[in-house]
Every structure is written in C-alpha cells, then in structure tokens.
Amino acid sequence: MEQKRRKFLKIGLLGLVAGIVKPVLATSTEVSNAPLKTPKLIGKKPIVISTWNHGLAANLGAWEVLSKGGKSIDAVEKGVMVTESDATNRSVGIGGMPDRDGHVTLDACIMDEQSRCGAVGCLEGIAHPISVARAIMEKTQHVMLVGEGAKKFALDHGFSTIKTPIPAVKEAYLKWKKENKDVFKKPVINHENHDTIGMLALDSAGNLSGSCTTSGWAFKLPGRLGDSPIIGAGLFVDNEIGAACATGLGEAIIRVAGSHTVVELMRQGHTPQEACQLAVERIISKHKDLTGLQCGFIALDKQGNVGAYSIFNGFNYALKTSDEEKLVDATYNRKW
Ligand code: GLY
User: Cβ < 6 Å from ligand 1: which residues?
Assistant: First the structure.
C-alpha cells in the first residue's frame, strides 16, 4: 500500500521558547506533534495495558486474574492467550500469517517481577506460544528455545497442537503467492495490519510483569525472528522501575534494544510517555528512510503511570483499571 508522508515544518525558535517542543528535539528537522503529557494514574492498581485494539479483549482476560488480587505474571499470560486463540487475528497466534514458504511460525516472550524471563521463537503448530515461553522460564535453566527444539519441548510438556495455516490463512497465502512476486517487499505495518500484542500489568501487590506474542512479519523469510521473542527488544520488565513492550517492525526495534531503552529512560527519571517518545526518536535517528517503518512502544511504571508513542499515526493501545476500560490513540512523531 502506498502511503504519503506529510512535509513537516522546521522547528522554530518560537516553538522551543513556547515549550511546544522538547529541547531534545532541537537538532531535529521535523516537528513532533506529540504533547508531552503523561496520564496520571498514580496509585491506580491493578492496571493492565496492551497494544492495539485487540488489546481490549486481551485486557479482559488479564482482568479476570487482576480483579481477584491475582499476580501480574498470570494476568499477562492469560490476557494474551485470548488473542492467540482468536482465529480472525492475522498477526498473532493460530490465525497468524505464514512465512514466505507457507509456515506459520510464532514468537513470544514473558517476564516477571523477579526479572525471570522465557522466550520462544519460530514455533510451529502449537496453540499458545506465550505459555511455552512461560514453561521455558519456569522449567528450564534457559531463556529461549527456537524451532524444532522449542516444538519438542512443547510436545514433551503436553502443550496442545494445532494445524496451521488455518484454511482462511492458507487461502490468503496462496493468493499472495500468486500475486506477489516481490517476496522481499516490506509490508505496511499500521492499524490495518495489526501487529504484535504486547501486554504490561501492575497487580494489587504492586508487582509488574509483561508478555509479548506474534506471528511476525507476514511472508517473512523462513527462520526470521523479530523483536517479539527477544527480551530487551520486544519486552522488558524491571520491577523497581517499570515495564515496556514494543510493536511494529522488529528489525528496527532490535537495533535500539527498544523496550530496555524505554525502561532505562524511566530509570533516568523520564515519565513513561517521555521514555516511549525518546526511544522512538532514537529509532528515527538510526534510519535515513522511514518508508513503511512503523514502530511503537507502550510503558507502565511502578506507580501505574502509562505512556505510548509511535513513529507514525494509527497506533493505539487498550487500558483497563477498576473504573476505566478504553482504547487510547498513541501520540506520534509524524503522519503517514
Ligand atoms: N514486532 C513484530 C515483529 O517484527 O515480528
């Protein structure tokens, strides 16, 4: 899909003086249109946030745990399992799009309040990669298993199998194969091509956990892993500070260790909103050409403050507390 990018104004001294633009942007040639404000939710726990509008249903799954005083690690697993089970979702779980050769390979990771973590990559034919990631975290001395080894681990531990691609996805794949000769063409990752679900939760006891699961880049090269199974890129949790997860083009997120960067920026005193913006700006600074490059972060700190920011417009996230349940449009650096 062709996307047009708007031209942006050079930053003027007036804008800086007026405080419209943060000093950190002073050397940029483009204006950020994001207001630098963080929704204040201090003391509001439990709370769960997750990427994109598929997060609304996932948050309800997490809420079943959090509302009963349950642990954030259980909530973030149960929450994203809702999305993994949704056969209509084309970027996560059983309904996910396949790689170039027609194989649906799933990636996921999970991290708890003790900085324990587990990850799985290139997993085929298993319904819940997030639960496999958790089992790797809890039952092995490793953090990440991939491919055939990951599948063997899942089967040995009784995880249920599923035949993929499901018929609707197979049909879409065959159509793509017929029509699209340029297998290396970048897909447009935006609100019409939903991406990873990343989820962050703060439980009643004040503990943070996170999860992240995806089928990755549609029609990717076989064997490709994006950011989603990589701790520090797709997800990072530090229970002293906060948690962050990413969505969008994984290759760009990995280059800046995106989610870890967001958490470290919070450690340095930035709000979750500022931290997400600064991490996105770092990605922008590493790329000469932003065509088709959408990336976004969501973040949650230890006090229950949230933030979200993306390169382009169109990214949103779902938020749930005891008195709020809503979809929020993330602020962004520029329009398509
Ligand atoms: N963010 C998902 C991926 O790039 O695979």
Answer: 195-196, 214, 216-217, 226-228, 247-250
